[in-house]
């Protein structure tokens, strides 16, 4: 039967995805040594039958982070088959393609050399086809190889039908099932006589056919059928999926399933995930077929995508900058996997930069074919990297979109020079993979060197086949080719059509209007406020804000200590990625160039001001980088201290002198409970008025800003760092009267708890508070709890002043307000005091957000959220571009719709000497891993965490699940680590 007479494989009905391939066991383990010996003999004989099969799987517009193996992937991304392929093979973490859009990349891959050598710079160039007499991929293979091209071709259109000089079978392929190009193709309309914009003719070999089914599934079926027919001889399968290129189309059942599992996801993102699901299943079925036929081990398989993810499809290229069509990393770096189990070990990552041009030279080296004389490959065989015989590869890599856009780039080592017409930017990718910081001014020699390398390279390239220049010039060309004139005419027609369509659909939505931001963060405030369901403390300001906004009842910090927590949420990164794991470390040393939340708003044109403790302390505060104006106030002198100090100085002299100062320090701590510091903490009525406390001063400074408007015409970002209820627990006298000690209610700590939890999970700070383990000191506990409660009502009153000023000045209607704390605090629970634990009372914090005109009054969410989500949330709400490497997830969808689900788990860590304790909290469970043990608590039935179930046999399966969950979450948390 000739290729033209091959029967069409039966198309399966379009079904919801979820049919993962499970390959059967192929051989008995006892046969493995014999098979290896036999295989070695067969390899030595070099018979054609034992040459490797070649498979190239090329996806379309898949986002760099839209694959599970990327630790930056979002929760909705699930690609188990692609991830499994990476485990079987080698993942190149710096895998590039040679073009920024579909067609140029495909030309380079088929040629093994820069497509600019044949005049292909843009999709328009490649889509029109290049010299049909040039040999491409299958033409270099030995004659015994059977080859097919399945899917998207995009290397010449079919305007000359039925001659089809650009057709795959006119370029060396034996058979095909494909469409010629034009970017995308309808996923449901597979009729060749259709007039739909995306429904182009589908070819089975040279014949146009009408087909049915879901196109991604059909391409998979064709690939599996090709393997079945050719499993007895070596073959080359070029499987070029058009997924996940536009149009956004997927079976409704799959889209509904995504939206059910991720209620906050946008419609287009849900469609993209459904499309990705079918694509991943396709990869699984092709690999599964190879395995079931015993072919996988001797198949050299390449998996990559043709360019970065497309912005219009809501693809995610995190942590890279840019999208499809750009020569920033997000446009040209892609997932890149190579597998050949017979020749090299899998489950490895290689960091050496490689490029899609390397695929053809690698294949020829693998099958023992010498590079043809005059072929002039720019690619190089990857085998030395894959086998571990080399760690170096290309000296320099080049990209160019030609003179039309003037965008080009060159990479040498870790240096990358990017050009946009006359603008040059230099990035050091080793330190700055997200290309945030242009260091061209600091490195002029490097710029000159890379510019010179590009100039030499581009001179070797030919002009674009569409008639434009290969270099950008500021001059207007004197003449325009007839072909280019026609292109311009068509573009003008398309622009006119788009305008007419917009008029039919109504006016486009107005752009986001920048809103003011008021960010209030308290210090050491646990969830003991009325809005979190704790009714023992009066917090009317919290309630006032909650009445007009949304309360998040399950919000969690990422580290239960001030400095690391603030570094985390002010930079949108987990503590492992900030490198800030104690109060002394400065993120400017651990992660230079990282842009903080206020700094980002300042860059966006906001006036920024800070009062009080926003960053941990003055040494770590970035100063003028983040703020136009900043203040840190101190409490006025306590009356009890003033009286004693005056008498002391009358006898000993000024307390500022050395010896006298030391003596005064001793006297100061002996005055009373109010003068103690952290150990033993001070507490009690201060004798000061509200405005004499630093928090009273902080609040009044914000009120002053609201009234005096130092921001002028700019929107403002004001941050108010409330110091209370941090120790010492001091507040004006009136707030203590609100909480009589004898009326306080709290539960005694279980005496045996310290015997059932890992030693590392516990801290002995109770000793610094004056307690003994296992000894209930009810009187002292009441004094501390009364003081803590008084501090909360005091800080609430100061926040009330600010909220009143917002209304009085008219800013209540144009200001986003966020109110939260840096972490929680233990007040005797589990016999512990203070912070630095991973228990709920320490990790959970109050969080209220109000967005004028957006949040519903008195709305609340029980979804799990993290403080590092605040950065992307505020950026999205205000229309400010956020850095690409943020690890938080915007809460805007939850603000718009309170029933939207939160995260599957939240993550909190804390240091124990050189180790970390790590905790994840899901809807029901909290699991913690320590150097010396584990914890598991059923928060539904044991919300106070009194029963550690880690050693319970009935919960062994839960422990396994939570361990795996923790590992996945931690991989994300460390993904941006430098």
Note the topology.
Layout lengths: L31 H14 L7 E7 L20 H9 L1 E3 L2 E2 L5 H10 L11 H5 L18 E7 L22 E5 L22 E3 L2 E3 L5 H16 L4 E6 L11 H10 L5 H26 L6 E7 L23 H4 E2 L1 E4 L8 E3 L3 E2 L3 H8 L16 H4 L9 E5 L6 E6 L2 E6 L2 E6 L15 H17 L21 H24 L10 E7 L17 H8 L2 E7 L5 H8 L5 H4 L8 H4 L6 H7 L3 E6 L16 E3 L7 H14 L5 H12 L13 E3 L8 H15 L7 E6 L7 E3 L1 H4 L41 H31 L6 E7 L4 E2 L5 E2 L5 H4 E7 L8 E3 L3 E2 L3 H9 L13 H5 L9 E7 L2 E7 L3 E6 L2 E6 L17 H18 L5
Parallel strand pairs: 1-8, 1-9, 2-12, 3-13, 4-5, 4-8, 18-23, 18-25, 19-29, 19-30, 20-21, 20-23, 22-24
Antiparallel strand pairs: 2-11, 3-10, 5-6, 6-7, 9-11, 14-15, 15-16, 16-17, 19-28, 25-28, 26-27, 31-32, 32-33, 33-34
Helix pairs in contact: 2-7, 5-7, 6-7, 13-22, 20-22
The number of distinct β-strands equals: 34
Low-pLDDT sequence parts: 1-49, 475-481, 505-512
Q: Looking at the structure, what is the overall shape?
A: elongated
Number of continuous helical runs: 26
Helix-strand makeup class: alpha/beta
Percent of residues in beta strands? Answer: 15-25%
How far is the N terminus from the C terminus? Answer: 59 Å
Radius of gyration: 33 Å
Give a short account of the largest sheet.
Answer: 10 strands, mixed
Helix content: 25-40%
Spatially, the strands of the biggest sheet line up as 7-6-5-4-8-1-9-11-2-12
The average pLDDT is 89
